[in-house]
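Cross-check.
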Amino acid sequence: MSHDESLELQILATIDKWVEQELRPIAKEHDQADEYPSDLVEQMKSLGLFGATISETYGGLGLSASTYAKIVSRICEVWMAPSGIFNSHLIMANCVERAGTDAQKEYFLPKFATGELRGGIGLTEPDAGSDLQSLRLAAKKDGNDYLLNGTKTWISNGIHGNCLAVLTKTDPTVSPAHRGMSLFICEKGEGFTVGKKLKKLGYRASTVRDIFEDFRVSADNLVGGEEGRGFQQVAGGLELGRINIAARGAGMAKGATTMALNYAMERKTFGKTIAEHQAIQLKLAEMSTRAAAAELLVHQAASKFDRQERCDLEAGQAKFFASEAAVQNSLDAMRVFGGYSYSPDYEIERFYRDAPLLCIGEGTNEIQRMIIAKQMVARAG
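Predicted model, tokenized:
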């Protein structure tokens, strides 16, 4: 066994222990109360999860995408919401580490790694989701600063975080529109207004609307120090984000299968466990195969990312398939549980509520299909 493999096993063993001792006992209560897990976040800081993929040079764990994906999946087998708290944060960090200036890396990355600065990435607006080129939040130069005005919405860590990577429009006249976009790292301050907490079907964590009104940010916080590069900087970070979403889906698909299997081995009808009924066996077989296939697609995408190869096709395939697997397996598990699946006493109903978000976040699955097809054509050519 190599040193890297041994280290990965130690890390995953630590995560498994934490999931069982700290995360599983509070998942139901915090989900149903829609309560931010503050104590859990402090534990995540201690575990180094906010620096999981940040280079050791800057105080992070320097984990590969492959190991990171396995951590995410282990967590999401039990509860998906906590993974979102550090996923959006690590996309922000990845943008800085790949595209930031040396000064930006030296200032921000150590603070990101410890969770001292913790937040996410501000892309979505009320009228701009998958179509990022239609965003409106404006950044206008004002001396050595920029003034930001506009609204971002559905921003992870918007309430409890203190820093955001914000995609803005610095030149509304240029064509194509993405050439007029720039990315800024914004620490909370005057002009950074947090809107109301949005009520959601599932994924009950801290997602809100953020409003920028004459928010002043130094030109030193323009990622890369050059305007017009924001769209490309964000696109690279989203590959890691899509691998994360895929890993969540694979974990949820497996978690739903495990819950359905355990219930089927306990529940009896007509004198035998329902796991002995062929109809249930067929469903369990489909679920386990779907979960295994999702896991393999995640591994394929993460491995290409680790080799620094282009992986938008593989990340799109993994995100598309694994998220749909989570949705289908949660529904199939509901059917295995029967009437009890509608009770919050059984946690499968949380999986059923949480899973659909994966088909929407980090680029809808309709967008993923388009990316996959275009890359197929491009590679064939």
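The chain has three domains: 3-114, 119-229, 232-380. The domain at 232-380 is CATH 1.20.140.10 (Butyryl-CoA Dehydrogenase, subunit A; domain 3). Passed to J.P. for a second look.
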